[in-house]
Write a structure and sequence with these properties.
With 57 residues, this protein is an all-beta fold. It has one domain: Single Sheet (Rubrerythrin, domain 2), CATH 2.20.28. The chain has no helices and four strands. A four-stranded antiparallel sheet has the order 2-1-4-3, with no helix packed on it. Strand 1 and strand 2 form a beta hairpin.
Length: 57
């Protein structure tokens, strides 16, 4: 039987700040009071690198 991990992980989506298109889905540790993700990723709609912020499903 597998041991339970004390840090639960959940899925969050990354949304483009310019066009509000939700392009990426990633996992993140839910417990621990971590700040929201803010990454520079490629947006297919804008066709260039834009800031993507974390949004819940």
């Amino acid at each position: 039987m597998a041991k339970k991990n004390k840090f639960a992980r959940g899925y969050v989506t990354l949304e483009c700040t310019v066009c509000a298109q939700r392009n990426y889905r990633t996992s993140k540790r839910l417990s621990g009071g971590l700040p929201k993700l803010d990454l520079s990723k490629y947006c297919n709609t804008c066709r260039k690198h834009q800031k993507h912020k974390e949004r819940k499903k």
